[in-house]
Amino acid sequence: MATFFFNFGMGFIGGIAVSVLRIIDATNSAAKVLHWFFRFFPSFSFTYSLLNMGNREIYALLEDHDEVKSPWDIDIAGGDVLYLAFTPFLYFILVFVVEYLRTKRSFMKMFQKDVPRVEQEEDSDVVKERTRITESGNKDMAIKVDELRKVYQVDKKTNKVAVDKISFGIADGECFALLGVNGAGKTTTFKMLCGEIIPTAGKITIRGFDVPDKIEDARKYIGYCP
Predict the structure, then answer these.
(1) CB-CB contact of 43 with 11 (8 Å)
(2) Residues 6+ apart with CB under 8 A from 47
(3) How far apart are CA 36 and CA 194, in angstroms?
(4) pLDDT tens digits for the chain (226 residues)?
C-alpha cells in the first residue's frame, strides 16, 4: 500500500506539479532542473513524458521556439526515455550492492542500536549450555550460537528485544528443537541463522563459517523451510 501511494504521489502528482511549474514563466528554469532529479523515479518519467508531449505547443510559445519540438527531443520525452532505459540497470546494480552490504556486520551496525540487558535469574542448565558454547571452538559443532541478541528500534524512544542472549550448539546428526511461546523470538533466531537479518550482538557459526560475514559459504549447508 505504501509503495502504491509513493508511486502515485511521485509519478502522477509529481509529474503534474513539475509540468505546471514549467509552464509558469517564473518557475520554468527551476522545473527544468527538478525534472532531471525526479526522472530517476520511473513512474515520474512515464507521466512527465506523456504530459510533455501534450504540452509541446505551449512550451514552444512560452520558450520562444521557432517550431514545435519533436516528441523525442531531450526536453520533451527524449530525456524520460533515456532515464527509463538506463535506470533499470542502475537499480539492478544497487540491489546487489545493498544485498552485499547487508551481510557486512560493520556496515549494518551503523543502523542498529543496542540497549542495556536486564539481567534475570537463569536456570542452571541454561548457564551450563552458555558456558559450554563459550568454551568451545567454532568447528567443534555443526551450528554454534553464542549469546545471540536482536533488538529492533520501534521508534526513537522505544526498542523491542526480540532475542536476548541465546546460546546453543548442535552437533552433527543431532535433532534439535527450538521451542517457545508466540513472540519468544524463534522466527527471528532462524532468520539470523540464515543471514536474512543481522544480529545486534552475539556470534553465529555454521560449519565454522561466521554468519553473516561468510554467509555464502554457510548457506551451502543450510536448508530452510519457513
Answers:
(1) yes
(2) 11, 12, 14, 15, 16
(3) 40
(4) 777 788 788 888 888 898 888 888 888 888 888 889 999 999 899 999 999 898 888 888 887 778 888 889 988 889 999 999 999 999 999 998 887 777 776 666 666 666 666 677 778 888 888 889 888 888 888 999 999 999 887 777 788 888 888 999 998 888 888 888 888 889 999 999 988 888 888 899 999 898 888 888 888 888 887 7
